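User: Show me a protein chain along with its predicted structure.
Assistant: Here is one chain, sequence first, then structure tokens.
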Amino acid sequence: MTALTLSTAGAATLRADALVVGVAKSGKTLVVAPGAEAVDKAFDGRLAAVLETLGASGAEGEATKLPAPAGLKAPVVLAVGLGSAPEDGESYAAETLRRAAGTAARTLTGAKKAAFALPIADPEDISAIAEGALLGAYAYTAYQEAGKDAKKPLGEVALLGAKPRDKAHKAAAERALAVAEEINRARDLINMPPNDLTPAAFAAAAQAAGKEHGLKVQVLDEKALAKGGYGGILGVGVGSDNPPRLVRIAYTHAKAEKTLALVGKGITYDSGGISLKPAGHNETMKCDMSGAAAVFSTVVAAARLGLEVNVTGWLALAENMPSGSATRPGDVLRMYSGKTVEVLNTDAEGRLVLADALTRASEEHPDAIVDVATLTGAMVLALGNRTFGIMANDDDYRSAIHEIADEVGEQSWPMPLPSDLRKGMDSPTADIANMGERMGGGLVAGLFLQEFVGEGITWAHLDIAGPAFHEGAPYGYTPKGGTGSSVRTLVKLAERTAAGEL
């Protein structure tokens, strides 16, 4: 993991492999952002002019390298675009700084140390720059041979302008480090090949983290699931040689007044089951446990941050495979709640494992439940690849999560739960079917899950099918592959709950 340090050294005097500065557009003019004054001075006040000659425009996502002049200890200056310069008296948006730092960290792969001289107006900026740099430096190389030409991620991020003895600055950096490391933990799990990340292996990872961070972990194997009547989880996992698991991982605080339950879909590989996915749709299905990874990482982050709130994570883990023992379309499952579900499509399996976990989580009467899942392709069609949908049985809670996501830089959008779509899941055989109307399929899935939430419990559902796994070229702090989507939102949600704001 990339190291993070706060430094009071000047940009001209700190020894590093590269100096990172920000540039922005002010009308048609390129301007050097605050924090880089010493670097601009070393260029005799002509840094912006030199960059313009090299074609820099200051656009977000842009990175321009140039050799450092005499007067700077670092041999290279890297200028990253910040977009439009803010109006007088205003500062750069946290997400702008986060993405710029991520772009810089990715560009500097192979460097041992980089000094970041980006604009810092308050501790929030420190947190954003640190998060962006640490997330941008991420690389998943566990299965690649380490050769001579292999470049390692950026080794150290030094934040200039941040004061290591300032309590607020130090706290911002420590929080950023904990959150970024837990997001990267989620990314590692999402990127792990499914032949290694089986439900049992995922459960073992939770047990190891529990031991390290003082968390209480309980694992229900296939025998315990059968004894307990978890028909949804068992029905999904029955076709695989790798049996399912339900993991409860809990963080508690002695001063906590509220409990937040998080439920994550953990399909370690989704072939679609008997309703087999076609070629072109199953190659990335190792990512179908991204919701469980986000929940797992959030619980660990809450423990590392010492939040005064109880956070319980439920990881519903199964592998959805076709075989002679697999659940068939037309089968009826008796869920943990006692309800029966007619399975019309075995590729609508996430809602089945989540339903059992939601019922179990409800038995503990938490103040709120939030489930997270790569649940429907319909949500991707509705919102695209970078935005997750939010549904809830409480409009104010849905709005709060949307505002939190926006605050931490995660794109989301509130979605409705239209009651008229519920009738489409009526079954002549069972209490409910796992499929309904095709149009509005993401909303139908949310309505199905709502059926399994305990009465009187505030609940929200995050469908992260779009942003959980990025198949395109990296951008900002977002890598190719697993992204760790929703972890920042869930951590901030836990913090707000701890503060009594929710």
